[in-house]
Amino acid sequence: MPCLNLSTNVSLEGVDTSSILSEASSSVAKLLGKPEAYVMIVLKGSVPMAFGGTEQPAAYGELLSIGGLNPDVNKKLSSAIANILETKLSVPKSRFYLKFYDTKGSNLGWNGSTF
Q: Cross-referenced SUPFAM superfamilies, in alphabetical order (predicted)?
């Protein structure tokens, strides 16, 4: 059930968002060892955002997962998502934060119940 929420101040108009969603989804599934069928990716563009006092391209993300997160995996996920944002949206890796949340299944709703 991993869910990656990405927000950026970059406009998504004219951007192939499907390729971003697809690459992010497969990367998250692979690195967490979870079925991609349960991975959700949310991408929001044109979000008012300043980083380091400027409004140059920047992004913020939060990744929620039931297990699978650890320092090594987090580093790989951060690298993979930063590469996608840099390649697809020209967001420099140095202007992107990614926060990780490891949660219990009882704290996450799905299909009218919890995990």
A: Tautomerase/MIF
